Here is the input.
Amino acid sequence: MNSDSFSTRRPWRWSRIAWGGGALLGAGSLVALLNRHFVRLDETRRSLEISRERMALAVAGSDAGIWDWDIPGDRIVASQRAFEIFGLPRGPESRTRDEWLAALRIHPEDAAAHHQAIREHLAGGTAACFSEFRVRHGDGAYRWVRVRGQCVRDTGGRALRMAGSVADIDAQRRAEDALRVSEERFALAVAGSDDGLWDWDYRTGIAFESRRARELQGLPLQPEAQPLDELIASLQVHPEDASQRAEALRAHLAGETPHYECEYRVHHADGRWRWIRVRALCIREADGRPCRIAGSVSDIDERKRAEQALRRSEERFALAVAGSNDGILDWDIVADNMYVSERALQIAGIEAEAAVRTRAQWMALLMPRLHPDDATRLGDELRELATVHRQVHDGEYRVLDGSGNCRWVRFRGMSVADPSGRPIRWTGSFSDIDAAKKVEEALRRSEERYQLAVAGSNEGLWDWDLATDRLFLSRRNQELLWLDPVEPQQSRRYWIERTHYHPGDVPAIRAAISAHLRGRTPHFEVEYRLQHHSGTWHWYRQRGIAIRDAAGRPTRMAGSMEDISDRKNAEAERERLEGRLRQAQKLEAIGTLAGGIAHDFNNILAAILGYGELAQKDAAAGSALRRHVDAAMSAAMRAKSLVERILAFSRSGMGEHVAVNVRSVVGEALDGVATTMPPGVRLQRRLDCGDAAVLGDPTQVHQVVMNLCANALQAMQQSTQAERTLTVTLDCVEEGTPVCATCELPAGRYVRLAVHDTGCGIAANVLERIFDPFFTTREIGVGTGLGLSLVHGIVTDLGGGIDVDSRVGEGSTFTVYLPWQDSVSAVAPPAEAELQSGQGQAILLVDDEDALVRLGEEMIAELGYEPVGFTSSKAALQGVRAEPQRFSAVLSDEAMPEMTGSELALEIRKVRADMPIVLMSGYVTPALAERAQRAGVVEVLSKPLASRDIARSLANALRPG
Amino acid sequence: MDTDPGRDPAEQSPGRARRILVVDTDSACVALLEQWLTDAGFEVLHDPDVGVSLDLAIVDVPQPRSGATQAFRRIAQRHPGTPILAVSSAFFPGIEHCTAAPRILGVAGVLAKPMSREALLNQLRRLLG
Here is the structure.
């Protein structure tokens, strides 16, 4: 060990003193002592060579034992001290080697090495024999001994004798062991320590820094010792920390602080600044000047950063708490330590200065503030929190302010539990959610209202996303469309495919959607029809509005849908009723007007015709005056005919009021119609009403049929239809409520007359006015335009109604309902009169139909007259002219091809003025009656003839005077 | 026919001309009837309250369908048993052939206006026998 290395060890020693305490100081002194002792032993051994006697004396005073082995004589002699040291019991000083070895109890681990050392020396391998080993003493303990010896050889080199010493080195050996263990431990500690060590010697100017210390300070790892100035220069302390460090060091060196302690950042090769902590103590000279300073350096970078992070976190937390809208609560359940942030107090309406340290204090402040309904609940919950661990607790409560208003607050927090599950801490927030709650409440109410409205509404809701074509339909909407409740989100196409729109409405729907999507209408609103699979049509009203993006493009459209069939039907019904009422009122008003006109005109015409007749009589036949009067009379007659029709329409006229056999009258009218049918038109009749009768004027019933048929023929004349058929049907409605165009009929029994044509049909706008008098679609001058109004007037007067069904281009059907008054035979039998029979008088019978002539002859013959039948009016006239007095009376048909009955009558009267003449006609019109009267006809009979009528009429005609 | 005096109803009774009361508000009609009836040999009266006995009354009914009987009742009270011929411009022509109308109105006969002289005389002939 040279002085340099020794001096490097010295700081260790210093260190040990400084840190390890005083225990090792004794060991160090012992080593020095033993070293000196060994030097002395060596000297002793050398002097043995010189003098045995001096040796023996020395032995007596020595602490070591002496031994001597006579190898050839196999005797070992040992001093008393040697015996003690070897732990041998006292015995003879001289023994054989075997005896010696048998007594000596060497530690089994050491025996082999010891014997080996002796053998090697004896063999001449070593200059001296040296061995240390443990021997067992009488107390059972092993003690370390050191044996030294040297053999004396003869000239041949054979060992003659071997002698030496034995020393008790047990204490020394143990001290050395302890030292070694300590030093090993120290080295290990230094090497393994997380701290670095350093030692600056101001006297020598040398600085020692352990490898770890250098590492921590960002210095090169080698060398561990270097000049102090050099080291100080290489230290790179953070500029912000440098002055603080310098001051701390100065203060300690100046004796102002008990130790030097400082935390600062040093620069590392990787460019980072790392925090270290240095702690040291200085050692001073006797005069107090520092001579050395030594200590440790620790890595506190992580801790420091963690601290910083924690501080930042705490700052952040503090700032967050201070700035937060939420109040913070932290309750240490075990210690019952309650922290309540200022904001939490504020939210609870508690003054900020209130001291809250325990839960009880907090509750005492909070409870009176809570709404009574919530206070109990919160109290229970908090009590539960203290005992039962819950991950998250969340509750909403009402806090009352001074004026009794409620504010909603929310507690939300979580508890932390110990391993046993017992909650030990509860941390949470306290928020003012009043505004949110009110909004939520309002929203909920609004949604409730909306839901109720939707549920209660008859309207379905729809929502169409244009981009995806998704169409949401509410349940009600699906019901409205008769769809199975499937996924309400389908494509619009899907729904449309399952819906049958009325073809007539599709263009309008498309136009409405398109117009709204293009922004031309503020709303999308359309009414249209959909067909149920049963075939019925329903009306819907669909409303909606488009939602547009910033560019104004529609992205979505939503709205409602409603079944408005009832409304539509009611509207249609109302419109129909209103129209009917309007029509009825109009006709009534016109009728009243027309009635008045007819009345006045008839009075005027009465005078005109009456005086005309007188003038006619006075004017000479063939004179110009007579011609002029005739013309005036003819025109007046036309006026009379027109007024008659107006009267019929006006319903103010009075006519016959008897039970009319409808079938008979209708059949007769159709016979008349058949004679005037235009070519190519077919007449179909189906008269199935039996003898049903209506109460009224047969002439008027006749007029109804005639007018309706004339109208129908007119319509077919205008039509281009190939098939032209006039169909007249008559039947009875046993029980029904007929639908009529201008009135409402009570339920009851009706005779129904339907006149159907395959004509041009009537346009809707015309349909409204067809019953108006003087309304005509015909050219001016053709017809009077009174036909249908006349029909209407008559039908109404009969207590019936009329309905029209017409399709343009297909034809029309006029249906007349007349109240059914029991049955009546074609001609009512006179109740009282007996048949008056003749006395064989000759009766001239004229009818162009042969069959009717034969029938008539039979009936007349049966009545006791002598019939003379003619099928030609001209032939009949010839017969009268031939024998004017042969016939007592004439019975003639009116409608005949060659000469009408009234014409015939006039001619016969020329031959025999007193001849009683009776006419018969299928249709006794007023004009005919008039004509017949002027021709001097006694009576006009209605066909078909009944024998009773003929009997009465002939008896009447033949009655004298 | 009408020129035949033998068939003139007014002359059926040789004693005196038959008296016919004509009640009509239309003066032209009244004048015409008077002309015709006088020509036919009847005595025409105009005052319903006349004290003399009547053979027939011709009464115009403006609205036979409503309230027509009042006029007839007055005649019937004043001249019981006198047949009444109701005439009206609201009657349909041909109503004289009708049996129901006289019964409904409670008169002996009906006749539509305008009427021919012949028709009137026919009715008178029938009613006066």
About this structure: Chain B has a mean pLDDT of 81.
